[in-house]
Design brief:
5-stranded mixed barrel, 340 residues, alpha+beta, elongated, two-stranded antiparallel ribbon, 16% strand, OB fold (Dihydrolipoamide Acetyltransferase, E2P), Hypothetical protein af1432
Amino acid sequence: MSLEGFKTLSEAKVGESFARPVFIKEIAEIKKEGGNAHLRFTLLDGCTEESAMLFSTTAAQAKSSGIVRHIIANASIKVSDYNGKSFNIQKIVPYGGDDLKIDDFVVTPPIDIELMYNEMTSKLKEIGDDMNGTVRPISELALDIIRDNEKHYKHSSAAVKVHHNFKGGLIYHSYRMFKGAEALCGVYHELDRELLMSAAAIHDIGKMWEYKTDIFGSAEYSAGGVLFGHLYMGAKLVSNYAEKYDREHPEGPKYNGEKLKLLIHMILSHHGKHEWGAVVVPAIPEAYVLHYLDNIDAKLNVCEKEYPKLAPGAVTQSRPFTFDGNIYKATYNTDDERGV
């Protein structure tokens, strides 16, 4: 059995009822004083993660019917209009087949992870600048870090919430910034291509330790993440790798000290402002570009998640986090050409 052909949660429109297999990631019981208990489900459909309500049901009642977290189930769902699009479960029963697996439901990037990994590692090898054989290219340092942590780099989420918060979110976010950096270097020729693209590839590398990402791609903060944050941990990692290389290659060419310093600066400054979590603010052109690429990709990913929920001509009912206003979905190139 394949999930192709089933309506996804994001595709469903207000007023529709539909049935499909889902993966139950979490179940939370909501008890209201003087009222019935309700259940809030976190459901995965392979494309998105959404909350859905099952009314007048307790967790014990659901469990007695075989409905618990971390199973595949067949759900009948009605879409209503309550603070935007909301999902109400009409009926849910355990899935009886064995042809669907958890991985079929986990949200992953729309671009193949191996393709992204191979393209970035190949390009990092290609863009290295050894300054006529006098230094080891800084891109080789970024390459060493990525290769040594390949499994986590491919698997990790890039956030607990907000943007790229799914399995493979870290590499997907890094890849899009990497491609954006490459394109901008073709326009702004004064930018250091090796420095900017290396920084784009590993700017969020500390998130592999800031978060603990489970098999579903969900992330929660680690103790180190709370104490230090991914900017510090990423910068420290770069410094540690450079020192380790120097110890192991006392006779070989070293990294250019200035480029190494600037790579660390870019990791520490890529949030742009102190109030946004930056340790320092950008002080070189490449650091400014890295910050804006980071901001652009984060916001576009939020738009990508919000757009499937919106009808053409509609706006989000609330202002998404980090946005200055609500998001509008255009009507052109759709069946709804209502205009204004």
